[in-house]
Design goal:
With 246 residues, this protein is of the alpha/beta class. It contains seven helices and seven strands. Helix 1 crosses helix 7, helix 3 packs parallel to helix 4 (104-132) and helix 4 packs parallel to helix 5. Helices cover 46% and strands 15% of the residues. The chain is globular and about 50 Å long. The N and C termini lie far apart (38 Å). It has a seven-stranded parallel beta sheet with strand order 3-2-1-4-5-6-7, sandwiched between helices.
Length: 246
């Protein structure tokens, strides 16, 4: 039996890319997954496919900017499977571009999804973890917060805010109940570039994805590695990127 088998995992941003890959891999390794995202049709297809392959999965339409949606996702896990062991906060958008573009609406959208959405996940999952006596928060951050580059200032700021949040929460939670893990991917083959409004920046990011991005499965394996550790071991942060990424 692996350290994943039998665990109940809720995943946001699960209708494609990294979130979908995480759901599929953890289900293959014996976890029950509750998948959340805004694209309900794709979520339903994912849950049906996992179930058809012998796994356990349910779908729950979730907009992480709406606290009640995230609370419903967590409640669905508890109702269907009796508990929640891991909450994977993966939803994110990248309204990137030069600060001089003054895309105030894009900045606000990134703050709402990338930061506030993570806070909503913590607020929903932490009371359940406390009642159970243990739980694990796994959150997708980004290498953009480790190497600051032009056009990514605000995006990186939201990701570094999450990194700081998780470290502060970790230090407040040394009673053995909560584990926190920040996963920082580099270029990954996902549709994240579709949320970029600046056409020049969008084309540049897509070029990088086409030329050297790694598969979402690689990030899913990193998540699985953190989740499967014995409970007295916490993987605080993992950075995963293409070997050729600068």
């Amino acid at each position: 039996m692996s350290g994943i088998e039998g665990k109940v995992v809720a995943i946001t941003g699960a209708s494609g890319g990294i979130g979908e890959a995480v759901a599929r891999l953890l289900a293959e390794r014996g976890a029950a997954v509750v998948v959340g995202a805004r694209r309900a049709d794709r979520l339903a297809e994912l849950a049906e496919d996992i179930t058809a392959r012998g796994g356990r999965a349910v779908a729950c339409a979730t907009d992480v900017t709406v606290q009640a949606d995230v609370e419903r996702l967590v409640a669905r896990a508890v109702e269907e499977f009796g508990r929640l062991d891991v909450f994977v906060g993966n939803a994110g958008i990248s309204k990137i571009g030069p600060v001089a573009d003054l895309d105030v609406a894009g900045w606000s959208a990134m703050i709402d999804v990338n930061l506030r959405g993570v806070l909503h996940g913590i607020a929903a999952a932490l009371p359940v973890f406390r009642r159970q006596g243990r739980g694990h928060l796994v959150t997708t951050v980004s290498t953009s917060g480790l190497k600051i580059t032009p056009t990514m200032a605000v995006y990186a700021a939201t990701k570094n805010a999450v990194r700081t949040l998780l470290e502060g929460l970790r230090q407040e939670s040394t009673d053995g109940v909560l584990r926190t893990t920040a996963i920082s991917p580099g270029f990954v083959r996902t549709d994240l570039a579709d949320s970029i409004d600046n056409p020049q920046v969008r084309a540049e990011i897509r070029r990088g994805i086409d030329e050297f991005a790694i598969a979402p499965d690689a990030v899913a394996r990193a998540v699985a590695f953190a989740v499967e550790q014995p409970y007295d071991v916490e993987i605080g942060e993992l950075v995963i990127r293409p070997t050729v990424q600068g």
